Structures are given as C-alpha cells and as structure tokens.
Amino acid sequence: FLGRKKMAEQYYRQFGGTSASFLTKQTIGMARPSVYPPNGTGRDTYIEGNNGGLYRQQRPASAMTVGTFRSMKQPEFNLCDLGTKRSNYHNNGTGRDSYIMLSNGGFYPQKMTAEFSRHYVNSLRYYRKPQTPADFTRPKTTKGARLMAKTRSSSVTAAQQNPYMKSQTLFMKNRQIEENTRRMSAYQQLHSNYLAQ
Question: In terms of CB atoms within 10 Å, which of 39, 122, 163, 194 comes out highest?
Fold first, then answer.
C-alpha cells in the first residue's frame, strides 16, 4: 500500500500535480480549502487515470493530431471516436423555421398579404427622440425646409403638447403684445405732437 501511495505522489509531481494527502504552503494558506480532495482516489481515478475515458489507463495526456500538416492523418492509437456533432435542427420549414419564414423573426405579421406593410412595424414600441430648441428653429437650407415641411403635420401637434414650446410660444406672444403696445404709444405721442403744432 505504501509503495502504491509513493508511486501516486511521484506520478502527480511528474505531470505538475501535487498530492493533497500532505500539507503544503499553498494548502495551509488557503482561505477556504476544497472539500473535494484531488488525491487520486474516487472520481479522480477516472479523470487522472485515463483522462475521462479518452486515453489508455495511466497514460500521460498527449495532444491529438489535428490539422493537415501531414498528407495522411494518423489518429492516436486506441482513442475513442467521438464522431461529428449531430444537429437536431432540420431546416425543412417546420418548427423554428416557420417562425423565420412566416413572420421574418417577428418583424412582420404572419399573413402573407400584409407581410411588407409598414403598419405592423410602426405599431411596435419605439422611443421618441428628445426635442431641443434646434428642432424648432427656421431651417437655413432648402433641403432642411423640405424635410421640415414633410414632418410638420406630426411635429405641430407634438409642439403644441411640448411644455418647452408652450412656454416659448407664450413668451413670444407676450413680447409681441409689448412691442405692439410700445409702437402704438409712440405713434400716438407722435400724432398728438403733430396735432399740437
């Protein structure tokens, strides 16, 4: 028994491992030592003995031959053949395919006649762009004026409900009234001076 234990420790050290059956500086200083000791017993024999069933018993893990470096690939001796990964998804128009084919992944209704109608896409949730004072200034180019004319119908109702635009409109109205009152009083003063002469 002692001979086997000594051989196991040498085996661990040979391939960079350490035996957990004796204390080392690393295991003493651990804040939370592992409850599962990797000491080559129990489940460890399956993993460390034959690499989980991929290699022969007690054989060190070696890299499998991959790539096309040789003209003819030579597989490792006595390895298990995992084969190719099988796909359970068949693109025959059923199952998940119908979701993509009928509704373009949920972006269009499932009826073919309404497939390219913008009504369904427009009914999806969206977030309004925050409005700034620059959105309501007079455009400096013809292109900007045309763009504003196209979006004017919806933006006029939005501007009437916007608190910023309400306050700006009220401010401009009051300023216009004050300006008209000042001009009228100046005109009346001028007229009364003319009549007094």
Answer: 39
Domain residue limits, the chain: 2-53, 92-126, 133-196
Calpha distance 59→15 (Å, rounded): 11
Place of tokens 């180019």: 141
Confidence of residue 7 (pLDDT cuts 50, 70, 90): low
Using alpha carbons, select from 176, 32, 104 the residue that is nearest to residue 168: 176
pLDDT of 102-141, one tens digit each?
Answer: 666 666 666 655 555 667 677 777 777 777 776 666 767 7
Do residues 91 and 97 lie in contact, with contact meaning Cβ atoms separated by under 8 Å? yes
Distance set, CA 8 to CA 46, 49, 107 (Å): 14, 10, 62
